[in-house]
Amino acid sequence: MRRTLLATAALLPTLALAACSSDPATTKTAAPAGSSAIAAASQDVVSGERKVDAVAALLPEDVRKAGSLRLGAAVGSPPTAFYPDPATKKAAGLDVDFADAVAKVLGITIQREDASFETTLPALRSAITESRISPPEHP
């Protein structure tokens, strides 16, 4: 568990750079200033990302074999992570797009665990989740 956590933390800078690359043929334009977060959430900004074998090879073997990573994340308010349609409980936002893009670069899927910010670190320690992405909620 500790090895998985350390490897995940060590990979974040590399993954961030890889996920930030863009292909002009697949890059979508950002929502115009002033548009609502819900309208922006409907834009697909991840489909252009592809697996990068050299980056995926850096994952711990158990994560590569499992093909997925459990991610604890707080779903709160736009623009980071929110439910555009609370009835569907399908999260959207910057954190969601970032995690999905990183997963595509790594060639894995994300199993999201909805959690409050305060519970994401204890969940890592107890192996309920293997990674976390959640900024503190603003009052």
CATH superfamily: Periplasmic binding protein-like II
Summarize the main sheet: 3 strands, parallel
Total number of beta strands: 3
Order of helices and strands: HHHHEHEHE
In CATH, the architecture is: 3-Layer(aba) Sandwich
Structural class: alpha/beta
* Straight-line distance between termini: 33 Å
Structural overview:
This protein has 139 residues and is α/β, with parallel strands linked by helices. The protein has a single domain (2-22, 48-132), classed as 3-Layer(aba) Sandwich (D-Maltodextrin-Binding Protein, domain 2), CATH 3.40.190.10. The protein is 40% helix and 10% strand. The protein contains 6 helices and 3 strands. It has helices at residues 2-20, 37-41, 53-56, 61-66, 94-106, 117-125, and strands at residues 68-73, 109-114, 131-132. Strands 2-1-3 form a 3-stranded parallel beta sheet. The longest helix has 19 residues, at 2-20. It is flat. The N and C termini lie far apart (33 Å). The mean pLDDT is 74.
Secondary structure layout plus pairing:
Elements: H1 2-20, H2 37-41, H3 53-56, H4 61-66, E1 68-73, H5 94-106, E2 109-114, H6 117-125, E3 131-132
Parallel strand pairs: 1-2, 1-3
Helix pairs in contact: 1-5
Which key phrases capture this entry?
three-stranded parallel beta sheet, alpha/beta, flat, 6 helices, 139 residues, D-Maltodextrin-Binding Protein, domain 2, 40% helix
Short structural summary:
Residues 1-18 form the signal peptide. Helices cover 40% and strands 10% of the residues. It has 139 residues and is of the alpha/beta class.
